[in-house]
Write a structure and sequence with these properties.
This protein is mainly alpha-helical. The protein has a three-stranded antiparallel sheet. A hairpin with a 4-residue loop joins β1 and β2. The radius of gyration is 22 Å and the shape is globular. It starts with 19 loop residues before the first strand and ends in a 26-residue tail after the last helix.
């Protein structure tokens, strides 16, 4: 018997969802009915997280209460820091984050409570704590102690404060807010699908998020903007961009940060990061990285007829914000936590275990031969 297969489950509809609509043909990204352009322009991360969790934008009072709940959950237990400090010095930051989230689950006495109410509490707590975890990982890698959260700051500003040890500028705070909003949700991508598969077994929220972090760690999913920054550093100057593009093309290499598995036209998130990268290039007095990115976008797009994606300008932008390249995927996780948790909540609300069928292409049934008779 033969079956029709779809490698990578391409074009297979695996779930009904009201969380996010991604239209690759027209380049649209919509959260709960709201276009990403409007959210990028007018919203904050806290408001966007509320929208993803509850399905509606909050009132002023609801937003204030939600923001205060996030602030109340920001602190990470010292036991988690102790475990992170005990890891090998060369541990991957995403492996450290995976361990940190798993440890948070071990410390939660309600870890195995799989009620909808408990899962929502876990979502709120993880959304708040993962920013603190992100910052602690960077500082521990650098040999410094973690910085405690400042509850006078917004979620985005507090993340940057804990990362860099100083309160960010208005543009830097806006940049972090934007990165968190734009990466918050993107349909059934690999890590989100992994989270839903795990959640469908009715295990705990921490297991689902730990699995999602493991999926995001992969270079084909969460590591592209790190590769973009490495490319910019390798090229070194605007003058070298043209020669580099020709060399990569001649050697049939890959241009990181260009093209997308879903979008057949421009990634709707890219332009927002591009503008803030320009602004921070002026603020920091280091226009080189932005100027190189502009030149690279122009030449690569003309060469391969593919637009840059969200990863391309997020590389220079995060670098301007004082975030090193090896931490980019952890920043991604600190944003996508909202999408992951929203999908887990949706999955368990009307759950059915996810068990696809494999198209078997191995041997037909055959007889066992004793080891003494095998040649």
């Amino acid at each position: 018997m033969t079956s029709t297969t779809s490698k990578g489950l391409k074009n297979i509809v695996a779930a009904d969802s009201s969380i996010c609509h991604v239209d690759g043909q027209t380049g649209q990204l919509i959260y709960r009915g709201y276009h990403i352009d409007e959210l990028a322009q007018y919203s904050t991360f806290e408001e966007t997280a509320y929208l993803l969790y509850f399905g509606e934008l909050p009132t002023k009072e609801q937003l204030e209460e939600f923001s205060n709940q996030l602030k109340a959950h920001r602190k990470v237990p010292q036991q988690v820091y102790d475990v992170l400090k005990a890891l090998p010095k060369d541990a991957h930051p995403m492996s450290m984050m995976r361990t940190g989230v798993s440890m948070l689950g071990n410390l939660d006495p309600n870890e195995d409570n799989t009620s909808q109410e408990s899962f929502f509490d876990d979502s709120l707590m993880l959304t708040a704590k993962i920013g603190t975890l992100l910052s602690a990982i960077k500082r521990i890698i650098e040999g410094n102690d973690p910085i405690e959260p400042d509850n006078s700051l917004s979620h985005a500003a507090n993340c940057l404060y804990m990362l860099n040890g100083e309160k960010p500028s208005e543009d830097a705070e806006k940049a972090m807010d934007l990165i968190l909003i734009l990466h918050a949700e993107h349909g059934l991508n690999a890590s989100t699908f992994a989270a839903r598969v795990i959640a469908a077994t009715l295990t705990d929220m921490y297991s689902s998020i730990t699995g999602a972090i493991g999926a995001l760690k992969g270079p084909l999913h969460g590591g592209a903007n790190t590769a973009v920054l490495e490319t910019l550093k390798e090229v070194g100057s605007v003058e070298n961009v043209e020669g580099w593009v020709k060399s990569v093309r001649a050697n049939k290499g890959k241009f990181m940060g260009f093209g997308h598995a879903v979008y057949q036209t421009q990634d709707p998130r890219a332009k927002h990061l591009k503008e803030l990268s320009r602004r921070l290039s002026i603020e920091t007095g280091e226009p080189k990285w932005y100027d190189m990115s502009i030149k690279m976008e122009e030449l690569v797009t003309a060469e391969i007829n593919k637009n840059c994606n969200v990863d391309f300008y997020s590389a220079s932008l995060q670098y301007y914000m004082g975030i090193p390249g090896h931490m980019f995927t952890c920043v991604f996780a600190a944003s996508r936590i909202t999408g992951w948790c929203a999908h887990v909540l949706e999955q368990v609300q009307d759950n059915k275990i996810i068990r696809p069928k494999a198209n078997y292409v191995g041997y037909e049934e055959r007889s066992y031969v004793p080891v003494s008779d095998r040649s």
